[in-house]
Amino acid sequence: MIMIKGLYKSFENEGQEVEVLKNVNLTIEDGDIFGIIGPSGAGKSTLIRCFNLLEKPNKGEIIVDGVNITKLNGKKLRDFRKNMGMIFQHFNLLQNSTVYKNIAFPLEISGYSKDFIEQRVLELLDMVNLKDKKDAYPSMLSGGQKQRVAIARALALNPKYILSDEATSALDPLTTRSISDLLKFFNKKYGITIILITHEMDVVKEICNKVAFINNGRIIEWGNTYDLLNFPKSIEIKQFVNENNFKIDKEELFKNVS
Amino acid sequence: MLAETIILIFRALFETLYMVIFSTLFAIIFGFPIGLVLVLTQKGGLLENLNLNNALNSIINTARSIPFIIMIIILFPLSRIIVGTSIGSTAAIVPLSIAASPFVARIIETSLNEVDKKVIEAAVSLGANIPQIVFKVMVKESLPSLISGITLTIINILGYSAMAGAIGGGGLGDLAIRYGYQRFRTDILIATVIILILFVETIQRMGSKLSRKFDKR
Ligand SMILES: Nc1ncnc2c1ncn2[C@@H]1O[C@H](COP(=O)(O)OP(=O)(O)OP(=O)(O)O)[C@@H](O)[C@H]1O
Ligand SMILES: [Mg+2]
Q1: A60-85: per-residue pLDDT in tens?
Q2: Where is the ABC transporter domain (chain A) (predicted)?
Q3: CA B64-B154-B165 angle, 5° bins
Q4: Closest Cβ opposite residue A105 in set B118, B126, B216
Q5: From the CA of B147, how many Å to the nearest CA of chain A?
Q6: Structural domain count of chain B
Q7: Measuring CA to CA, how many Å separate B175 from each of A51, A53, B8, B85?
Q8: Cβ B136–A105 below 8 Å, yes or no?
């Protein structure tokens, strides 16, 4: 479980302090697929980057399984990060390493034996359906294949959590669907808790059981996906939902989320 | 006569190779850590430290603004301390290595900075520590560029070594000046020039080929 309490983050921009996150409070339960939505510049990426301390918050607590991780550093922080994989919009793979080597990277830096690494990488390649691309370089892969390599890499150390910052934004609708299905599969099969940012309402509708709407650095509302999208309390979400055609009907929700 | 000339040229070639190989090696040994520290301590770097970064930059810029021939003269006494003599190819390696180090530091800095920041961030998110990020991500990702940079370094050091040769270091530059220029031995002059051209050509070709081989982008 992740509890965020009174989180603040500001950046220094040309000598001026800009507050990007303002008193964020959230709880993410184990097994959730937790969506974060909101307009561009709202602070979504900054928030998700606080979860694994790529950004250090100015104030507030992030309590992951009972530990306030904002205080971690050095080896403790690195070990914590190994329990929280991350995937990105532009995949961020090692360009000069093969698919195999990319997925082996987190295992190699954690000091596993060659045999164990080989066994685990092959297992992962099988899960993301890329066995035949083992020796290919990222430049030879399609966007969807690259993202699957990135997912395998993020899962290599068996993390409890996955962070996803617009992992499907660079992909076409069909590929988006296959990637979001894959995330849902890992959530269901291995109970991995997923926190994801997306601009695509299909992704929210199809896989998120909870969603938070963030605007201007504040969480406007968060909760059950169906309720939040269909019966939002705030006018901002109503507008956003209408603009993005975010509404869902209950049947669709039951079909996909439960 | 011809045999003598050939021996002369081969000895000079050997001295040049000796100077270039070892000077390049030491220049990389000194220059790599400096270039790496420049990258790590820069703004937004993994070990950001602007005071150290500024100080290093100033030192490098100062060193690079001294003409090489002056640098050699300044550094030759150091050779006496380090290798016990200030004459000959071995003595020339000391100023050559030191003079080329700031150049190498810049080459390394530029290459490592070409690595996509997002790829480094992905490694951080996977729990990599700094040595792992440096060697398994930064060096590996920038290998083609590092190889091109080292190729350039070798060619530069070859040029420097001719100057070092002229003031007591031996080698092809020394041969060209003492025989070709001062004793009007045009044949030796032409031979050295041809050897130097072939040398540069070979190094450049090998460097480019190797660089392409490691480039999978
Ligand atoms: N390193 C930084 N330095 C200064 N300002 C920053 C930095 N990172 C983000 N910001 C600012 O913080 C605000 C929120 O940025 P963030 O990237 O979190 O938004 P976002 O919701 O992810 O937007 P998008 O949907 O466009 O990705 C923006 O105004 C941005 O300019
Ligand atoms: Mg963003």
Answers
A1: 999 999 999 999 999 999 999 999 99
A2: 2-241
A3: 75
A4: B126
A5: 14
A6: 1
A7: 66, 62, 8, 20
A8: yes
Residue matched to tokens 């928030």: A47
The domain spans of chain A are: 2-83+163-257, 94-158
**What CATH number does the domain containing B71 carry?**
1.10.3720.10
* Edge-to-edge strand list for the sheet holding A59-64: A16-28, A2-13, A59-64, A67-68
Domain with B185 in it: 2-213
- Tell me the one-letter amino acid at B181: Y
- The mean pLDDT of B89-108, rounded to a whole number, is 92
pLDDT in tens, A23-61: 999 999 999 999 999 999 999 999 999 999 999 999 999
CATH 3.90.228.20 fits A2-83+163-257, yes or no: no
ipTM value, please give it. Answer: 0.91
Judge: A96–B144 Cβ closer than 8 Å, yes or no.
yes
Share of chain A above pLDDT 90, in %: 84
Of B118, B121, B143, the CB nearest to A96: B143
Task: Note the pLDDT tens digit of each residue in A155-193.
Answer: 999 999 999 999 999 999 999 999 999 999 999 999 999
Chains A, B: CB pairs < 8 Å? 77
